[in-house]
Design goal:
The protein has about 240 residues and is α/β, with parallel strands linked by helices. Helix content is about 40%, strand content about 25%. Strand 2, helix 2 and strand 3 form a beta-alpha-beta unit. It is globular.
């Protein structure tokens, strides 16, 4: 029976973390572990996490020696994970109860390397259901990469609406780039899609993505512009290498 590792990079998430963790505990399929990567938080994040760890045996936490950033935290999670499959969850988002079950069933039934679900975009003003009509069921690599690199839609470059095979990540030494302040997840997804062979998409929304104005994607500076350029270069290079091979 397949198991899923849920990796949660956490840095000062005290305001919304309980909501997120509570929705993990309501999952109808319990074959998962939760690994919280405390990225040297200075608020009550660790205290909140420890309360759940005491109550749920499949929850645990590791603490980074300093605030190293989200890519380093995700990479630490890849090292720590013990499941067959892996995904990455943000501490201010939350899940539908069928989230883990959908992914575990999809991998078991279709023998895929990557599975994708739809999601809700949440804000203080409204909830938007993101469920595309053009990509569903078993799809090919070109379709997936095209949708990963789109600026809108049901797939995009996020990691939290996708589940991956951990052995495929490790065998290919795939990591998140810690020299990027933006688009590190999109680069990772394109690189993973380039080595994966089978893909499955179900547009049903199972993840709630909380958007707030403080997000790095809503700020623009020289560092972010540099990261966008470098990320796009790596994406294009991966696609060209794939075509040449």
């Amino acid at each position: 029976m397949l198991s899923l590792s849920i990796i949660m990079p956490l840095y000062n998430e005290e305001l919304l973390l309980r909501r997120c963790l509570e929705t993990i505990t309501t999952q109808v399929n319990p074959n998962f572990e939760v690994i919280m990567i405390n990225d040297a938080s200075t608020d009550q994040t660790a205290t909140i996490a420890e309360a759940f760890i005491k109550k749920y045996s499949n929850f645990r936490m590791v603490t980074q020696p300093a605030n190293l950033g989200i890519s380093a935290a995700r990479n630490r999670g890849i090292q720590e994970a013990q499941g067959d499959l892996i995904t990455f969850l943000d501490g201010d988002d939350w899940l539908e109860p069928q989230y883990t079950n959908y992914f575990l069933q999809a991998f078991s039934k279709y023998q895929v390397d990557l599975a994708i679900c739809g999601y809700f975009r949440e804000s203080k003003r409204k909830t938007t259901k993101i469920r595309g009509k053009h990509l569903k069921g078993l799809v090919n690599r070109n379709q997936v990469i095209r949708h990963i690199t789109k600026i809108s839609g049901q797939v995009m470059g996020y990691t939290w609406n996708k589940v991956y095979r951990l052995d495929l990540i490790r065998a290919n030494h795939l990591q998140f780039a810690d020299d990027l302040s933006l688009m590190e997840d999109q680069v990772f997804n394109v690189q993973y899609a380039a080595i994966a062979r089978r893909f499955y998409v179900q547009p049903r929304p199972l993840y709630h993505y909380w958007q707030h104005g403080q997000s790095a994607t809503h700020t623009y500076d020289l560092e972010n512009a540099k990261s966008i350029g470098l990320a796009n270069y790596r994406i294009v290079k991966t696609i060209l290498d794939l075509k040449n091979n």
